[in-house]
Write a structure and sequence with these properties.
- The protein has a domain of 146 residues.
- With 376 residues, it is mainly alpha-helical.
- It starts with a strand and ends in an 18-residue tail after the last helix.
- A two-stranded antiparallel ribbon has the order 1-2.
- Helix 10 runs antiparallel to helix 11.
- InterPro entries: NnrS (IPR010266).
- Pfam families: NnrS.
- Keywords: Membrane, Transmembrane, Transmembrane helix.
Length: 376
């Protein structure tokens, strides 16, 4: 790699980890302790997590190595947009910075994705483009009162689920196949293209139906089907045979994603509130997969493992704890505040561990290539 270029994850992954670790406790302080700062969290943290945290992860993973001046400029746009959105969410500055970041980033990311040969690989390009453009569309459509915020956030969560199914599935398939081969076996169910294609079609259909009035039950049925297919795909990887910490964590994230799609589909089908089901996806799946993938990318680039086993197990357990506590807050009203605070703490601790790893506070140990621990 040319010295003039810098991998995007060097900036965006630590920033995303810090963003996640700080934002949720701040949001809980607004919700539970009566804080009124920052103003951008007055209506909750869902929008900022989707448009700030998630887009930072996507930029870090997909931008790749960039000339340093360009990367610093893109990162500065993201950082300025996040500060403006938190401090002055309705300002003209915020209205300029957020679109500027997403448009500039999409300009450098989407063409690379469109160059893929297979349609399943090319399909990720419009998906990423829509996710990048969603903050602009959200603001315009809500301001014009054409849509309420909730359906647009549901639309974004469904598309985010598709992105996690696609990228998480590709990473798991390659890593599991490599580990099974190292142990003398052969994994025949790798990418599972027919199941992957079905998931792409179903999630795109569900996203479209989710913003069409009167199609709530149909959306739920499609999501239920997608959840079942995702669960089948996970089982066919046979990750329990790999006995590797990073694959355990990746499998846990994919498990939360399948369960979240099933729960979201069931609540929509039955006409119930879907906040709890959405948090299974945004806490359990997004939390586990984002931490694990960011850590793997970092460790593979270093060719070292920073106490890899304990890190992957600890963060997966912390995110699982945060997910379960968030669900308890819905079903045990007498313990709502306690459950929310504890869930927030578990989530933040997991991302602080990731931040420590990315910044080198967790000292790397043995090389990755040794015994193929995370080399896949």
């Amino acid at each position: 790699m040319a010295r003039s270029k810098l991998p995007a994850q060097r900036l965006f992954f630590p920033a995303a980890a810090l963003h996640a670790a700080v934002l949720i406790p701040l949001s809980m302080a607004n919700l539970l302790a009566g804080w009124s700062w920052p103003a951008g969290l007055a209506a909750g943290h869902g929008r900022e997590m989707l448009f700030g945290f998630v887009l930072a992860l996507i930029a870090g993973y997909l931008l790749g190595p960039q000339p340093r001046p360009r990367l610093y400029g893109i990162f500065a746009l993201w950082l300025a947009a996040r500060i403006a959105a938190l401090v002055a969410p309705a300002s003209v500055v915020t209205g300029f910075l957020s679109p500027a970041f997403v448009l500039v980033t999409a300009w450098f990311v989407v063409p690379k994705l469109l160059a893929a040969k297979k349609w399943r690989n090319r399909s990720i390009a419009p998906l990423v483009l829509v996710l990048f453009l969603l903050p602009i569309g959200y603001q315009v459509l809500v301001d014009l009162q054409w849509f309420a915020p909730a359906p647009l956030l549901l639309f974004g969560i469904i598309l985010l689920s598709l992105l996690m199914l696609f990228m998480g599935g590709r990473i798991i398939a390659a890593a599991a196949a490599g580990e099974v081969q190292r142990r003398g076996g052969r994994l025949t169910a790798r990418v599972q293209p027919s199941l992957e294609a079905a998931l792409i079609i179903l999630l795109v259909l569900a996203a479209v139906l989710s913003v069409v009035p009167g199609w709530r039950m149909a959306t739920g049925l499609v999501l239920l089907t997608a959840g079942l297919i995702a669960g089948l795909r996970l089982i066919r990887w046979r990750l329990w045979q790999c006995r590797r910490a990073d694959l355990f964590a990746l499998g846990a994230g994919y498990f939360w994603l399948a369960i979240g799609l099933l729960a979201l589909g069931a609540t929509l089908l039955l006409g119930n509130g879907y906040s709890g089901a959405m948090h299974v996806i945004t806490i359990g799946a997004l939390g586990t997969l984002s931490i694990t993938i960011a850590a793997r990318v970092h460790l593979i680039n270093l060719q070292q493992a920073a106490a890899a086993g304990p890190f992957f197990y600890a963060t997966a357990v912390l995110i699982a704890l945060a997910t379960l506590l968030r669900l308890l807050a819905v079903h045990l009203p007498g313990y709502t505040m306690t459950s929310l605070w504890l869930a927030s703490g578990a989530w933040s601790l997991a991302y602080l561990l990731l931040l420590a790893l990315l910044l080198g506070a967790l000292t790397p140990g043995r090389g990755l290539k040794r015994r193929g621990e995370i080399a896949c």
